[in-house]
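User: Can you write out an input/output pair for a complex, sequences first and structure second?

Assistant: Here is one pair. Inputs:
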Amino acid sequence: MKLKKKEKPTPAISTASLPDIVFMLLFFFMVTTVMRETDLKVKVVVPQATEIQKLEKKSLVSYIHIGAPTETFRAQFGTAPRIQLNDAFATPSMIAEFIDKERAARSEQEIPLLTTSIKADREVKMGIVTDVKQELRKANALKLNYSSSLRTEVY
Amino acid sequence: MARPVQEVNAGSMADIAFLLLIFFLVTTTIDTDKGISIKLPPMPEENQPKNDIRIKERNVLQVLVNANDMLLVDGQPSDIKQLKRLAKDFIDNPSKNPELSESPQKAIISLKNDRGTSYNIYIQVHNELKAAYNELRDVRARMLYGRGMEQLPESSQNEIKDFYRQVISEAEPEG
């Protein structure tokens, strides 16, 4: 008697669990996505550097943006570089108040760990940056980070 | 006669979820904040007498940047591409040049810029000085422990950082 090979139809791979997998991924991305909190009103292209360090705790960083106003604000504010704190244009004298507010939002142990990150456009002049630095020194916010992107070639 | 309960077709669920997933994938910007960290000196107190600590000329490397982004290093016109080499020579002074620092611990780099200096060149100067220190530290780490700075335990790292202590003093702005 000849043994006949039984032809088994290959079972289709069950896709029932696919939605679950995709949903899991979806939730992961939903949770990790941080929508940009502040609308940038100034154009910022940070300078490039090689010796950069990561800022560790994002919640302990306050940002100061410096750059020329974007096109929509140019008619109103001109093209000279300006400082942006949170959502509004600011003058250097408003930095002390800004730092105070940032401190008030944190617990006491966290205050010494607060870092200020200056996100300044590479085109701006040092005059405005120096003003900001002096204000930060007055407010005793001495931990500073000049935001930069990575440059691969080394001089 | 009771009709059998019709099952909801869940086949398209995956498509919907995929669509959402792709949306979030695209909008997610894992933007890590990176940059050059410095510590500002505290504001001098109003009635504090001008400190007259004498520092030997040879222990100070003067770096001036003018409004046209031109560098002057210890009185010599220079280029950003040479700053790292000059700084390393100054800090380490392997040839015991009497014009350069006595020891790495005594070396001070003094930085002065104009209000018209561009922010970019200011960052580049900071970057090169930091690179000079990092390279010297790494060389010492390899010499003492046979490993790079990153692979060392924190205590040894601090020891090396103390040996090549980075002192960058920025001039008080005028006016």
